[in-house]
Design brief:
The protein folds into two domains: 154 residues, Golgi alpha-mannosidase II (Immunoglobulin-like, Sandwich), CATH 2.60.40.1180; 346 residues, Glycosidases (TIM Barrel, Alpha-Beta Barrel). Helix content is 27%, strand content 25%. The chain contains eleven helices and 22 strands. It is found in: Lysosome membrane.
């Protein structure tokens, strides 16, 4: 009888929740689709949103909680105490310990992402773009744009597929750019309260420029740095920037090429262009750097590597120790794959301490890429934790931004011409004209929504050993943001000490991600 009563009560609560949601509150329309947590479903007329976030006055704090149990950026407020509670665990903000400043967070406008967004009705497309880019969305400010095709395309192409076209007379953007990616980028920019930081990455040079005569597999540029293929490949980058500029889209940065190590792997299954660190160094020094400097886009940043941190510190040492290459370079771009093989301190930390004038930037990450855990998992909280753990680890080791991979995929994790299906924070169901916001969409939000550009990481010290993972920032307006991840299955009580304001008593529920924010004046 009690079980039946409990079930009836739960049904009533859920029914009430649906009624509440239909009145237009900003709560998640939760769907449990077979994994350890829920997705939030959105359509043309409704989507949950945290809204514009304004902090309470001095003496109070805001909290935002997401959890495996189903909370999604659940907002709360509390009072800052004058005295500590004597909690066993105290996290003390140390504002005098100053580190890197944030540049931004975002995702990639691949062909696949564009196809999926455009497969929805106009109203649902607008909802999806607003979720990422509008003031009530999660504050994405970085968009990575593949130069021509990658595996998340439906075909193989470059912008200069005419053999022997060293002057790039036949260079042309693809229909994928002109009809899909560019219009969506323009719409995203129109929604964003600040200029988007666009980041360009190429997967492969045209086949006729390459040693293997193909876009895929093991192959690099023919000839040597300083030679005609290398010069033409540098000019290809310039032409790309010029063509996008005609649509009023200018690029903050470009990378020297996606995953250059892949082009050295035998029979690599999709688009790749091999570079050794020595070749990359010389190509930047002799070709790309001078071409960019002489172009109409001399302020575009150049990021080297654009590959896994497994290759650090060796790769960066080879390139950055060369003054001819180093003067054209602004930062080191890293992907998150196989991060567990290399401690952040021995890769990111070492590079920061050796070359503090170059920033570290995360340019690609996705869940579901591993053969052991492949594809889309609708409602996986474990993947939300993977994201938060990696972002906190990166931020605590001097990384200034973190870019997710595809902005949206379909339910199979594509399209992808080589069937390299993965997961995405937003999964589209075009048949129902809905999209699902995955738990790791909210992981991104806990950082992207609150860590504005210019926010500076500061020290945070713990009074004792803890399972909590955390990072702290002071924003440009002087307010403080503390992000806390609890991957354990236990509730953890703690208090925060900020000498400027007092003490915050808080709780990290089991398997949760918590953002705390407060004013200091």
């Amino acid at each position: 009888f009690l079980d039946k009563m409990a079930s009836a009560l739960l049904a009533l609560v859920l029914l009430t929740a649906e009624v509440t949601l239909s009145k237009g509150t900003n709560q998640c329309v939760a769907r449990n689709l077979g994994h350890d947590s829920v997705v939030c479903e959105c359509n043309s007329t409704y989507c949950d949103s945290v809204g514009s976030v304004a902090l309470p006055p001095l003496g109070q704090y805001s909290s935002y909680l997401s959890s495996m149990a189903g909370s999604r950026l659940e907002a709360g407020r509390g009072r800052v105490r004058v005295n500590g509670t004597g909690a066993g665990l105290r996290l003390t903000v140390v504002p005098d310990q100053k580190y890197q400043k944030i540049r931004g967070f975002g995702g990639a406008m691949t062909d696949a992402a564009a196809i999926n967004i455009l497969s929805l009705s106009a109203g649902t497309q607008e909802q999806l773009l607003r979720q990422y880019f509008s003031p009530e969305g999660i504050g994405y400010s970085v968009v990575r744009v593949p130069m021509a095709s990658c595996d998340f395309s439906t075909r193989l192409y470059t912008y200069a597929d005419t053999p022997g076209d060293y002057d790039l007379d036949n260079f042309t953007l693809a229909p994928e750019d002109v009809k899909m990616k560019i219009p969506l980028l323009q719409r995203a920019q129109a929604l964003s309260p600040r200029p988007l930081a666009l980041l360009a990455s190429a997967w492969s040079a045209p086949a006729w420029m390459k040693t293997n005569g193909a876009l895929i597999g093991k192959g690099s540029l023919r000839g040597r740095p300083g030679g005609k293929e290398h010069k033409t490949w540098a000019q290809y980058y310039i032409r790309f920037l010029e063509e996008y500029a005609k649509y009023n889209l200018t690029f903050w940065a470009l990378t020297t090429g996606n995953e250059p190590s892949a082009g050295h792997i035998t029979n690599y299954s999709f688009q790749a262009l091999g570079f050794t660190p020595e070749e990359q160094r010389d190509w930047v020094a002799l070709d790309l750097g001078p071409a960019l400097h002489a172009s109409s886009h001399p302020r575009t940043h150049v990021l080297i590597l654009d590959d896994n941190r497994l290759l650090l510190p060796h790769w960066a040492k080879v390139v950055l120790n060369d003054i001819h290459a180093g003067r054209f370079i602004h930062g080191v771009a890293v992907h998150w794959y196989m991060d567990w093989l290399v401690p952040a301190e021995t890769s990111l930390g070492v590079i920061h301490h050796l070359y503090p004038e170059y920033y570290l930037f995360g340019t690609e990450a996705c869940a579901g890429w591993s053969p052991l855990d492949r594809g889309v998992k609708l409602g996986s909280w474990d993947r939300a934790e993977q994201y938060a753990h990696d972002i906190i680890g990166d931020l605590n080791h001097h990384v200034v931004g973190w870019t997710d991979w595809n902005l949206a995929l379909d339910q199979s994790g594509g399209p992808n011409w080589v069937k390299n299906f993965v997961d995405s924070p937003v999964i589209v169901d075009a048949q129902r004209d809905v999209f699902y916001k995955q738990p790791h969409f909210y992981s991104m939000a806990h950082f992207s929504k609150f860590l504005w550009e210019g926010s500076q990481r500061v020290g945070v010290s713990a009074s004792q050993t803890t399972e909590l993972e955390y990072t702290g920032f002071i924003r440009p307006d002087g307010s403080v943001v503390l992000i806390v991840l609890n991957r354990s299955s236990s509730v953890i009580q703690f208090e925060v000490r900020d000498l400027a304001v007092g003490f915050i008593s808080s709780t990290a529920p089991a398997r949760s991600l918590l953002t705390l924010a407060w004013n200091t004046h």
